[in-house]
Amino acid sequence: MTENINVNLFLSNYSEPVCSNALKLRDILYENLPEVQEQIDIPARMIVFSYGPRYAEMICTIIPSQKGLKLGFYKGTDLPDPDNLLKGNGKISRYVEIKKTEDIGSNALITLVKEPFAAYKTRYNK
Fold first, then answer.
1. Residue 55's pLDDT band (cuts 50, 70, 90)
2. CATH code: domain of residue 17
3. Domain range holding 38?
4. Over residues 70-85, mean pLDDT
5. Half-sphere CA count of 88, side-chain side, radius 13 A
């Protein structure tokens, strides 16, 4: 319960569409990442989803901004992306821009969300 209050408080700094879409995206992550842990990183202004405290155990991040919403992926450069959703040119991470609510429930995005979990299980022999 406290976790929800913290997330809602964190997201209250953003517009209603960004907040609403972030909560919907969060639901998708919880549905597709079994037992994932959530942390709010205030200085980085993001919600982190991971399977442990180390950076290498991070799966993805919800990154709200005044302009919109991004779903970031740790090791996104290693993810298969047949639908060309991933953007960015960092050495490790990639992100998906969530432009409208319909993007959140798309099969392409849900498939992409499952990929880093499978990679995590392989890395840690889970």
1. confident
2. 3.90.1150
3. 2-123
4. 93
5. 20
